[in-house]
Structure to design on (522 residues):
């Protein structure tokens, strides 16, 4: 219990120090663009009410979850297919490396041209950004499955979906999780970028609207909300990861202690 | 019945072919316990993989219960040497044993009965809920044996299963394998490099030459069926048999060295 408290304290120490420094350093600021932290915090409650949450945060989150979910589905599905097939891998790997090297924000104007300005495009933008790390890590993970376990499956005639579900996906899961974590932060970035161009709601849109309306403290508060959202999603991810990879951490710890 | 006829396996690579198995002919009767022993590097694992349908032979054929092996045959289970890598670390012990039964299409109740029975047979009745990596090496190999038992194989192949456990555990596991074989009556082919182990366990010991491998000798082990780590191993007949096997293997090694150094 004390150890948990200690760790929480340690994790919060630096943010608190930074906030306090910001508070005092900006206290006498008269700059229009860099208002005192006090002002930003004061506008927070009436800027981010339940109503704005529903009209702006919720649409963003829904798009993020759909986009991230699709990226996971697509990345893992294709990754298993490509990772399990040596020929396919040799054929596709150069192209995948090329596509991955393209910074996803560059594709946003292209996607808008092709698919228009609606919600599907904004989701597509998120998928296009997030799918690569998931796909490439899944390919790596599937490629690296243990040979003795593969022999065990063959020998006991464990095939088809049962094999994919209980062997391939689980064996690749440590790698898949690495990709999924990278993808989560990319998806959040892509969510905001998608809303900067031609949106009518969402967090990114709101921040830009505040900026255009010279509501600078409100703009800063929006940046805060985005940061907090990132932290919360990352925490949620860690909780899921602990459940999914419980066996992996346990096995690693057992290995280290020379079991 | 397990029939191996003129089995040959060569590995090809960059203009150099390595002949792992020269010409192996061997028959194991239903319910017999046969140990295969040979000098290290003689292709014991290659042989076992051919029998298990995991490796395609270059020539010759393997039959399990009369059926030619072209892929992993029905009713055959393998216990691998690397217990740490043959159990699924994300599945609990009971789930590890249950998985092959699921692929066999057995119902839930039947699966549970088989899991409990096999765990009991290897002395791990309480370990079903543990993860493999929470167990010692010897216990992990017990789980692998339990998984093979639950599969209800007609033929069980064991590939140096106790090479990586300590001597004490090894003796316990050897007795366990004898007990399991007697109780379930499957055909057992046990590959090992340990001569004492081969003589102690088997009804018959098959000695292999060094590579290119062929069968040196089939030796019936005429020891009483009740084996005991202390009594059997100090039995005059046991000592005689193991000396014989030892001499033949040494001969085989010598021949191998001669062949390597000959111009």
């Amino acid at each position: 219990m004390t150890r948990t408290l200690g760790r929480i304290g340690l994790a919060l120490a630096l943010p608190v120090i930074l906030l306090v420094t910001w508070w005092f350093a900006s206290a006498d600021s008269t700059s229009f663009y860099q208002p005192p932290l006090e002002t930003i915090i004061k506008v927070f409650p009436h800027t981010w009410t339940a109503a704005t949450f529903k009209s702006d945060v919720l649409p963003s989150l829904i798009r993020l979850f759909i986009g991230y979910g699709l990226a996971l589905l697509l990345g893992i599905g294709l990754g298993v297919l490509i990772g399990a097939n040596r020929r396919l891998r040799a054929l596709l790997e150069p192209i995948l490396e090329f596509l991955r090297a393209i910074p996803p924000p560059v594709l946003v104007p292209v996607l808008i041209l092709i698919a228009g300005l609606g919600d599907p495009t904004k989701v597509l933008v998120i998928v296009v950004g997030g799918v690569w790390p998931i796909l490439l890590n899944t390919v790596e993970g599937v490629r690296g499955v243990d040979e003795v376990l593969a022999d065990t499956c063959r020998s006991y005639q464990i095939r088809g979906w049962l094999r994919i579900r209980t062997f391939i996906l689980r064996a690749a899961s440590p790698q898949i999780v690495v990709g999924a974590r990278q993808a989560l932060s990319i998806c959040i970035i892509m969510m905001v970028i998608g809303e900067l161009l031609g949106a009518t709601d969402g967090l990114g849109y709101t921040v830009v609207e505040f900026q255009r309306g010279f509501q600078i403290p409100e703009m800063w508060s929006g940046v805060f909300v985005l940061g907090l959202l990132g932290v919360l999603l990352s925490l949620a991810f860690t909780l899921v990861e602990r459940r999914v990879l419980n066996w992996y951490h346990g096995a690693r710890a057992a290995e280290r202690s020379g079991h | 019945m397990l029939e191996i006829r003129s089995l040959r396996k060569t590995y090809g690579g960059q203009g150099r072919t390595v002949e792992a198995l020269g010409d192996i002919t061997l028959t194991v009767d239903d319910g017999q316990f046969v140990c295969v022993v040979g000098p290290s590097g003689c292709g014991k694992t290659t042989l076992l993989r051919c029998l298990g349908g995991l490796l395609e032979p270059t020539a010759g054929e393997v039959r399990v219960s009369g059926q030619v092996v072209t892929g992993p045959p029905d009713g055959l289970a393998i216990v691998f040497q690397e217990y740490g890598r043959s159990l699924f670390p994300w599945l609990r012990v009971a789930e590890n044993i249950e998985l092959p039964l699921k692929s066999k299409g057995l119902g839930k109740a039947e699966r549970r009965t088989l899991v409990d029975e096999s765990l009991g047979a290897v002395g791990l009745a309480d370990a079903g809920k543990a993860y493999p990596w929470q167990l010692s090496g010897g216990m992990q190999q017990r789980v692998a044996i339990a998984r093979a038992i639950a599969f209800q194989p007609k033929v069980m192949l064991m590939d140096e299963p106790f090479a990586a456990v300590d001597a004490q555990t090894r003796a316990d596991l050897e007795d366990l394998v004898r007990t399991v074989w007697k109780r379930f009556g499957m055909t057992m082919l046990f590959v090992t490099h340990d001569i004492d182990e081969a003589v102690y366990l088997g009804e018959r010991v098959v000695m292999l030459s060094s590579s290119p491998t062929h069968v040196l000798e089939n030796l019936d082990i005429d020891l009483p069926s009740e084996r005991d780590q202390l009594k059997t191993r100090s039995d005059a007949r046991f000592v005689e048999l193991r000396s014989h096997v030892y001499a033949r293997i040494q001969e085989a090694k010598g021949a191998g060295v001669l062949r390597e150094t000959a111009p």
Q: What stands out?
A: Residues 160-196 of chain A form the longest helix (37 residues). The mean pLDDT of chain A is 90. The CA atoms of residues 66 and 86 of chain A lie 31 Å apart.
